[in-house]
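User: Last request for today: this protein with flavin-adenine dinucleotide, please.
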Amino acid sequence: MGHGHPTRSLTGQPLPGPRTSSRPPSCKKHSVSTTSRGIVIAGGGLAAVRTAEQLRKSGYQGPVVVVSDEQHLPYDRPPLSKDVLNDSGKGVGDVIADVTLKPAEFYSDNDIALLRGAAAGSLDTAARTVTLADGMVLDYDELVIATGLVPKRIPSFPDLAGIRVLRSMDDALDLREHAASARRAVIIGAGFIGCEVAASLRKLGVDVVLVEPQPAPLAGVLGQRIGELVARLHRAEGVDVRTGVGVAEVFGTGGQERSDSGEEHGGQERSDSGEEHGGQERSDSGGEHGGQERSDSGGEHGGQERSDSGEENRDHVAAVELTDGSVIDADLVVVGVGSRPATDWLVGSGVSLDNGVLCDEVGRTSEPHVWALGDVASWRDAGGHQVRVEHWSNVADQARVLVSAMLGQDAPSVVVVPYFWSDQYDVKIQCLGEPQAGDEVHVVEDDGRKFLAYYERDGVLTGVVGGGMPGKVMKARAKIAAGAPISDVLG
Ligand code: FAD
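Assistant: Here's the final one, the structure of the complex with flavin-adenine dinucleotide:
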């Protein structure tokens, strides 16, 4: 691995000559070592930035290198489906600046080497090296995996222009451009991202059909009852919400373009557990959510994967046929059927994978000196379950815990109550705690648009979900953290 390729030091400077990649096996001690290879962070999103920042805040003075396969400075993803998409008045430069997490000076001032357009290609845990896609080899004392997610595709979709996904800044800018001239969009999958895109496209005046195989939007994450309140919100804004149906075929302008399997698309099996950023996936028995192994390894070659180059030379999407036989004319299709952990580069490395990178409760993987956090990582929770969380606020908490453990410092002893939000129209949907779709749901307020609901499992308050009720959601934090009985919140 890396044999014959130039190597790169942790400051990103090419080293003088090629070096052999074979090294004696590294010491198995699972704490930071005193050599000066430094810490490599693979991934260029929120988790990478928070980790790098936390390392410096915690007094770590060795080399830190962040390896990002994107060209942009690391940026924040939540606005991609919201302001980036619907604020059509803003120029692209301003849009990018608004969501950039840290200015370029942050990296230079903190002596953090940020390698952009550099994909981690493989890992050799014995040699403690990461080989980049271009062949460069990086040595590390400690490696942090923060490679996030890859959007799932529907491989059997035909190769048509106008079929998009949304995960990255480039996806968002591209979708924004398409949306500017779109008349009608079909959004496949009513998870958080599908719902947010629906709201943003409505704001731009696009007709939207939201297709979800489950009985209601977000039903897999929040349960059917709350999902129906979300459907009501979208219908009130003019979205045509079709539930209980999938996609049978997709047609292009040049005639019928069969989606070849004839199977039902729409993500029933893909989007029903912890979809997108609403995701919080449990895999207690080590297998039921083995997403990255079982699902879409071939899925990235579907038509909707293609970038815009040459888009004008291809047929454009024209219509979508649903499994109930209805045909919807559409000039834009957004596939929002969830994401899978970006772990392809780790296959064969020895790092244990099962619906993400398996970690203990502080982010240690199965391999010494290798850690993981963020959307890609499945951490063990206090109950011994593996849980992979796809939420923004989780990342900073994990970075603090992981860095403390790595540096041998006391881990922060805060009780973290999981939290995420989703902005749809003027309604901020907030979720605090760990509600599950199967919990009993108590809707305690509902004015026809805004709502508040408590979730109960075995008599205990597990979470609260509110739409447009920020203060009331947050008020439940202490009770959720304490595992209060549901009677504490039900008058
Ligand atoms: P990411 O942000 O995905 O970063 C991973 C980075 O690693 C990416 O830059 C990727 O390109 C890079 N990478 C991947 N593979 C490699 C490789 N081999 N080598 C180098 N680099 C690699 N959460 C909320 O709580 N509320 C919201 O409203 C919300 N909205 C969202 C809207 C959208 C459109 C999306 C996509 C997510 C949203 N989220 C939201 C989720 C939140 O953004 C994520 O939880 C968060 O971004 C996770 O950060 P991360 O660093 O783990 O992963």
